[in-house]
């Protein structure tokens, strides 16, 4: 049973069909003959549907190779001449985008420390602030409306990595008051290898990958048309009814496990639990559950073959517990008995671990 949706969602059937259909289009979207115009029509139709779904205009959506590129494009393409500020629990795609990014602390519940943000904004030249809508490890939702208001008050731009929220909760660039959103197709049931940066109107963006003038000169290279078609189809297949169903499964898992939940005191994604089993390394838990047929992930980051505690959980002040947390993230097609099956495997794992420690 696959419970690692925050890494990638299963492909939605409509997205698969759209990808296969688009593979038969011969033309380059930049060509002006009939085949090129057919490809262009598909490209711009997809652009309009995706942009509208997330509260923007078609002309302000830039297709990228994924959310990492969209994040880097936002920070470097919008942030020239500005200080770069990011939350301490941001994705590495943000924290490693530039060498001079300053990090802001989070509260113990995982939400950005707004007092620290205001102090940072008041203490220097205009900034670009990068804050994810929801943390990928804990599911914690940041108070984006409040953050956007602080940014406007101090003349700062706000970029939001919306990867984990898109498709799981209502999301609108205009309603948030943000300047840009990063999106990823495969995190909402589309194909891997395509994402987008959605900009507020009239915002100038400096291309970081210049080329032949594609994407209104903001990102060079022929567009990945089949992946984009699948992206749009996945967006259209999103079902608001998934959220309450997944939240009920998440709550059943947390209640049945009876363990500390990282970020459990804050508003969170409906599909995400970060469970802490003290004394048992996260990678040991992940391997044991995998052998039982349950795929989850750990909060540990792997670098050069060495597994260490999660930087997100350390930033939340969890200390040694940061090395003992697993992430259970329910996919859009999670079965009705997902909680029951997970809890059975988890209980069996804990019994084996307890017996092993006792011997």
Question: How would you characterize this protein structure?
Answer:
Helices cover 37% and strands 14% of the residues. It is built from twelve helices and twelve strands. Helix 9 (242-257) runs parallel beside helix 12. It has helices spanning 13-22, 34-53, 67-78, 92-95, 114-122, 144-153, 173-176, 225-236, 242-257, 282-291, 311-315, 338-358, and strands spanning 61-64, 83-87, 102-104, 127-132, 157-161, 180-184, 195-199, 272-276, 297-298, 301-303, 306-308, 325-329. The strands form three sheets. A seven-stranded mixed beta sheet has the order 1-7-6-5-4-2-3, sandwiched between helices. Strands 8-12-9 form a three-stranded antiparallel beta sheet, covered by helices on one side. The protein has a two-stranded antiparallel ribbon with strand order 10-11. The longest helix is centred in the last third of the chain and has 21 residues, at 338-358. The chain is α/β, with parallel strands linked by helices and 359 residues long. The two termini are 31 Å apart. The protein is globular and about 75 Å long.
Topology:
Elements: H1 13-22, H2 34-53, E1 61-64, H3 67-78, E2 83-87, H4 92-95, E3 102-104, H5 114-122, E4 127-132, H6 144-153, E5 157-161, H7 173-176, E6 180-184, E7 195-199, H8 225-236, H9 242-257, E8 272-276, H10 282-291, E9 297-298, E10 301-303, E11 306-308, H11 311-315, E12 325-329, H12 338-358
Parallel strand pairs: 2-3, 2-4, 4-5, 5-6
Antiparallel strand pairs: 1-7, 6-7, 8-12, 9-12, 10-11
Helix pairs in contact: 1-8, 2-8, 5-6, 9-12
